[in-house]
Amino acid sequence: MIENKQYIFGYGSLQNIHSVKHTLSHKTSLSEPTFIVRVKNLKRGWYLCVNSNNTFSEPWTTLACYEQGGCTTNGVLIEITSECLIKLDERETGYIRKQIPIDNIDCFDETTGDANRIINLPENSTVYYYSIDSDYIEPPSTNAPILQSYIDVCLTGCIEIDHRLGNYNYEYSSEFLKTTYGWNDLAYWINDRIFPRRPFEHVPFARIIDTLLSQYLPQ
């Protein structure tokens, strides 16, 4: 009997394997990102308010995806266990876990960096992602801004993927920025880095992140 393998599609902070491992703890079986992919018919953007009902933590806006024809979203597939899936469901409150049709997934060739290779998943594999209902999009606001610390987590994951692909011009990170919607709402953005004037003390890729943001985001 062929084992049914499960994968999660990470398109935001789940692209950062260190963030995922922090959530799941060292006791949980978790592989490095198995595939670097581009998924068709998914639209990513600043769409979800979190912590809105939390007494102690203030609300902020995070990334979310929903089905939208003609759009693409890059990310990673991470093989997970059923135990991992339960813990991720607990973390990803406010989302709806859905399946992605395998035919909608293109795999990046780690030799060329191109996303034109048909993904080769084991038979009976299931790919999940965390979605929202497009009727309930909540754009950033004064009360729920975009946080620089969250952008740093996402882009750190992207930059590490660029290194894996051998991208010297950070093509994967650039695609992440270009295919994420809602950047115009940076009017509602907070630089909450621990040391905003010396961010590289805690964010090793801070200079690269700042350069990418300045190149690709509206001024």
Question: What's this entry about, in short?
Answer:
This protein has 219 residues and is α/β, with parallel strands linked by helices. Helix content is 25%, strand content 29%.
Largest sheet: 8 strands, mixed
Straight-line N-to-C gap: 56 Å
Radius of gyration: 17 Å
Proportion in helices: 25-40%
Fraction of residues in β-strands:
25-35%
Calculate the mean pLDDT score and round it.
88
- Let me know the CATH homologous superfamily: Gamma-glutamyl cyclotransferase-like
Shape: globular
**Highest CATH level, the class:** Alpha Beta
What is the number of E strands? 10
Ordered list of secondary-structure elements with their pairings:
Blueprint: E1 6-10, H1 17-24, E2 35-50, E3 60-80, H2 82-91, E4 96-99, E5 105-107, E6 117-118, E7 126-131, E8 146-147, H3 148-165, H4 171-178, E9 180-181, E10 189-190, H5 206-216
Helix pairs in contact: 3-4
Could you describe the 3D structure shown?
The protein has 219 residues and is α/β, with parallel strands linked by helices. The chain has one domain (6-216): Hypothetical upf0131 protein ytfp, CATH 3.10.490. It is 25% helix and 29% strand. It has helices spanning 17-24, 82-91, 148-165, 171-178, 206-216, and strands at 6-10, 35-50, 60-80, 96-99, 105-107, 117-118, 126-131, 146-147, 180-181, 189-190. The longest helix has 18 residues, at 148-165. The mean pLDDT is 88.
